[in-house]
Write a structure and sequence with these properties.
The complex is a heterodimer of chains A (310) and B (287).
Chain A: E1 2-11, E2 14-24, E3 29-33, H1 40-47, E4 55-60, E5 63-64, H2 69-75, E6 76-79, H3 91-101, H4 106-119, H5 135-146, E7 153-157, H6 165-180, E8 184-188, H7 192-198, E9 201-206, E10 209-214, H8 216-223, E11 227-233, H9 237-245, E12 250-256, E13 259-264, H10 268-280, E14 285-290, H11 295-302
Helix pairs in contact in A: 3-4, 9-10
Chain B: H1 4-15, H2 17-44, H3 54-78, H4 81-87, H5 91-95, H6 101-122, H7 124-131, H8 138-165, H9 169-205, H10 213-220, H11 224-236, H12 240-245, H13 258-281
The chains are: A alpha/beta (310), B mainly alpha (287).
């Protein structure tokens, strides 16, 4: 478990991070969302040991990370929002160089590098020069580089920024794999719908403060003023609508062709009861689902209509 | 190689033809100088031959060119080391690895000096010419090469410090050239004025001027030129600069030669400068 407690970072009079607190459970893919200047990168740089905080602490399983440089470097893999490459260096040499910076024994490097390149789907490019790779490939290489010392926590600052849709999908798949491998991942992005698909939890930060934190569904539930349900039926649309209207928590039932839609402000038990009532009445229900909220909308609501690119 | 930066820098610089061309051009230049020197000496000789003692002067001349080369080349090899990492946006990544800031700057220095050492070693066959005439031993060449390396470390550590301070490589280089220009010429000029002053005072009192050890060391402890001429003077039997000054006593009595003071002072200061450079790039330094 990572706990950020009362983190403060001041630049003179300007407070970039203002008493920020949040938790990331072990193995969680945590999405860090916020408008420009919200303090995301500053927080990530503090967690990666690239900035000293003015106050507060970052605990990893109860151990303060930022004051224990050795522990921090072993625990954290950091990928900045840009990727630096060296001229005249091949992919495998680039990886070997960073393996050297973590003092990984020479004998272990080849297998490790091959595995990591395979993970990011670059094993066929290992003899290519780094500067000849596409942006997406460089980004994946940078991710492989951040994994070279097998860190438990990955801090990825906008890993999908500037990538084309295909490269984004590839990056998303790799991150999912890493999540499945049990890595704790802190990821920031301005592509909010992607975060909702990728992250088990998100935290929305604005003006250096955490505005809300939780699973995407929980946040939706907390912030969406009305929950809208869609019920698709094969027949008996009117019966389905009538059954729904019997519940006090159901408002504004709209009937369409083999589908009804209604607003709902009840509990999960009531939600189950509505479905059960329809089924008991013989309505052939083929779909009963809550309309997905729009993460962008929520983001705008929380951050007071700030910019959506973090 | 324990420091991965040294390996990487060597790998990338040796892969490029640039270093090869520079080495070739430099060796060719030294050969040309040696050839012109021999031609001139032979032409001026009344017997039409070559006096083996002149080989000593050729040695001093070639070594002087080596020193000038070190002074000019080291900033260009090292002044972009940290600012270059910043420009490539790789410094942050390096700082998150297990390498300490000191090992990063040390690796950069050794890599830069390593390239220079390659160039210096490539010129050794030119020195071999001097063996033909005798007078210059292998130890002379080794000791002057080591002295040049110490000078390179001294200049390189400053270059790296400025590379940590300034974002642009050109500015770092410029500052190093100005600093070493002042360190070599301004201190020598200052000492000459001091000598002139104490000699005129002594002449009025009709006594022999005795230069102060403190002033001498203050002026020359960090002056690579002073150490160089002191070492060359020992090797060829006469310090060309001291002879040129024309003062009855140009330097105080010292327990060790100037170049020894120079080597010790420069190495010590280089270590301090590197530590300061490491502190400059340490993101977690306390103010």
């Amino acid at each position: 478990m990572i706990e950020v407690k009362g983190l403060v970072k001041c630049y003179g009079q300007f407070m970039a991070v203002d008493n920020l607190s949040f938790q990331i459970p072990t193995g969680c893919v945590f999405g860090f969302v916020g408008p420009n200047g919200a303090g995301k990168t500053t927080t990530m740089r503090i967690m990666a040991g690239l900035l000293r905080q003015t106050a507060g602490e970052v605990l990893y399983d109860g151990r303060e990370m930022t004051s224990d440089r050795k522990f921090l470097k072993e625990t954290v893999g950091y990928m900045p929002d840009f990727f630096g490459v060296y001229d005249n260096l091949k992919v495998k040499e680039y990886m070997d160089f960073f393996a050297g910076t973590y003092f990984i024994p020479v004998g272990e490097r080849k297998a490790l590098i091959d595995n990591l390149l395979q993970l990011v789907d670059l094993e066929e490019k290992k003899d290519f020069y780094v500067d000849a790779l596409s942006r997406g490939m460089k980004q994946r290489l940078c991710l492989a580089r951040s994994l070279i010392h097998d860190p438990e926590l990955l801090i990825l600052d906008e890993p999908a920024s500037g990538l084309d849709p295909r490269a984004r999908v590839e990056m998303k798949e790799i991150l999912k794999t890493l999540g499945d491998m049990g890595k704790t991942i802190l990821i920031s992005s301005h592509i909010l719908p992607e975060l909702s698909e990728m992250c088990t939890q998100i935290g929305i930060i604005d003006k250096g403060r955490m505005q809300i934190q939780g699973s995407v569904a929980d946040i939706m539930r907390q912030l969406t003023k009305k929950r809208v349900f869609h019920v698709k039926v094969l027949d008996e649309t009117d019966v389905a609508a009538a059954r729904a209207r019997e519940f006090a928590s159901v408002k504004h039932v709209i009937e369409a062709e083999r589908e009804i839609q209604f607003d709902f402000d009840g509990t999960e038990q009531e939600r189950a009861a509505i479905l059960a009532s329809m089924v008991r009445a013989g309505v052939p229900v083929i779909d009963f689902r809550e309309q997905e909220g729009n993460l962008e909308e929520i983001f705008m609501t929380i951050t007071g209509g700030g910019q959506t690119n973090a | 190689m324990r420091n991965p930066i040294i390996k990487r820098e060597m790998q990338t610089s040796l892969r490029s033809w640039k270093l090869f061309y520079v080495v070739c051009a430099y060796v060719a230049f030294l050969l040309l100088v040696a050839y012109l020197f021999l031609e001139t000496v032979i032409a001026q000789s009344i017997y039409g031959g070559f006096n083996p003692e002149d080989a000593m002067y050729l040695y001093a001349l070639l070594s002087g060119i080596q020193l000038a080369f070190v002074l000019l080349a080291v900033p260009s090899l090292t002044a972009g080391s940290i600012s270059g990492e910043r420009e490539r946006q790789t410094l942050d990544i390096l700082l998150t690895t297990k390498m300490t800031p000191f090992s990063i700057v040390f690796g950069k220095l050794v890599a830069g000096i390593g390239q220079l050492l390659m160039m210096i070693v490539a010129t050794l066959p030119v020195y071999a010419l001097l063996y033909y005439f005798g007078g210059i031993g292998l130890w002379n060449i080794i000791s002057i090469t080591l002295y040049l390396m110490v000078t390179a470390v001294f200049i390189g550590s400053f270059s790296i410090l400025f590379s940590c301070i300034y974002k642009r490589t050109m500015i770092s280089m410029l500052v190093v050239y100005v600093l070493f220009g002042l360190l070599i010429f301004a201190t020598a000029g200052g000492y000459l004025i001091y000598l002139a002053y104490i000699n005129s005072e002594a002449a009025m009192q009709n006594i022999m001027a005795e230069p102060s050890v403190l002033v001498y060391c203050g002026c020359f402890a960090f002056n690579p030129g002073a150490g160089f001429f002191s070492l060359i003077g020992e090797q060829i039997g006469t310090n060309p600069i001291l002879s040129w000054m024309g003062f009855s006593k140009a330097m105080p009595m010292l327990p060790v030669p100037t170049w020894v003071i120079n080597v010790a002072a420069e190495l010590l200061l280089s270590f301090g400068i590197l530590a300061l450079a490491a502190r400059k790039i340490n993101p977690l330094k306390r103010k």
